[in-house]
Automatic annotation (TrEMBL):
It comes from the Eukaryota. Residues 31-173 form the Copper acquisition factor BIM1-like domain. PANTHER family: ANCHORED PROTEIN, PUTATIVE (AFU_ORTHOLOGUE AFUA_6G02800)-RELATED (PTHR34992:SF5), HYPHAL ANASTAMOSIS-7 PROTEIN (PTHR34992). This is Copper acquisition factor BIM1-like domain-containing protein. Residues 1-19 form the signal peptide. It is a lipid-anchor; GPI-anchor. It comes from Orbilia brochopaga.
């Protein structure tokens, strides 16, 4: 499913991609401040997301195959969060916080809106086919005070050779993503002019034109990946809004509203 989403997302328009990219509009309607992008997490509900260990009213349902070697956990971050921790509990339905042991990485001090992905260590002493649950715990300032949030993703551990999925593992923040769009610079010619002789040495040796080309390429690449992520996320999260939706709508970033306005109205 991730693979086919990638293809579709590459075809998606840049407007659609940047409008929906970071999940900001989704916060409070289909997710809390932070959610798993991969593996798939349990359905979110505002009423349960501060309840340990899993922040969901649902038990394990859909398990994602997770490789013993080369696994990762990817996040969609709608709002700044702190003290992010990942833990794992082996078994079919861990229900106690004490079942969960430190997983990858031990602790992340802070994350900002966007996407982050952390590589998992090789899982040892666990048989192929073992079920497990990965817990995400973090603090976020929800409605004016810090609260502890939980989310869980249910997995079945498989050998690396049996794992055929591709993990949407990338890091991008809202600020990185929006910077080039706001300047709206036309992409530079791919033939860069000779470097000015006056510039002193010691830098990377790239001309401004070359750097711009790299930046544009990176952004285009990121757009395609994020588009895939968004498409993937929207496909699997189509829950109706609930009571927490309204306050969150008010801190949707301005880029979102601009992109939502039809082209005619913007002139
Ligand atoms: C489980 O996966 C199926 C098929 O992808 C989907 O229709 C269903 O909504 C999922 N259930 C949950 C609780 O996410
Ligand atoms: C893992 O969970 C699935 C259902 O989610 C179940 O069918 C399967 O038997 C479990 N595997 C083990 C080894 O218990
Ligand atoms: C949470 O955010 C509100 C509004 O931005 C701010 O007034 C408050 O000081 C914050 N609280 C904490 C504990 O960070
Ligand atoms: C994303 O950033 C975190 C923190 O800097 C780092 O540990 C992780 O390896 C990065 N992930 C990728 C895929 O680059």
């Amino acid at each position: 499913m991730v693979r086919s989403s990638l293809l579709l997302a590459v075809a998606a328009s840049a407007t659609a991609v940047s409008a929906a990219v970071h999940g900001e509009g989704a916060e409070g309607s289909i997710m809390g401040p932070v959610a798993f992008l991969w593996p798939e997490d349990r359905p979110w509900s505002a009423a349960a997301d501060n309840t340990a260990p899993c922040g969901s009213t649902s038990g394990p349902m859909n398990r994602t195959a997770f490789p013993l070697v080369g696994g990762a956990v990817a996040l969609t971050i709608a709002d700044d969060a702190y003290n992010v921790a990942f833990r794992i509990a082996y078994g079919n339905n861990p229900t106690s916080q004490s079942d969960f042991k430190t997983f990858v990485p031990s602790e992340v001090a802070a994350v900002e809106a966007g996407h982050q992905c952390y590589k998992a260590p090789t899982i040892t002493n666990v048989a192929d086919g073992t079920n497990a649950t990965i817990q995400l715990e973090y603090w976020s300032n929800d409605s004016g005070r810090d609260e502890t949030f939980y989310a869980c993703a249910d997995i079945t551990i498989v050998s690396a050779t049996a794992f055929s999925d591709s993990i949407p593992c990338f890091n991008v923040t809202v600020t990185e993503f929006e910077a080039p769009a706001s300047s709206d610079a036309a992409p530079q010619s791919s033939v860069a002019p000779p470097a000015p002789a006056a510039v002193s040495g010691g830098d990377s040796g790239l001309t401004t034109g070359q750097k711009a080309g790299i930046a544009v390429g990176t952004i285009i690449g990121a757009s395609a990946i994020i588009g895939a992520a968004v498409f993937f996320a929207l496909r699997r999260r189509s829950k109706p809004s609930d009571s927490e939706a309204a306050p969150y709508m008010t801190h949707t970033k301005s880029a979102h509203s601009v992109e939502s306005v039809p082209a005619v109205a913007r002139q």
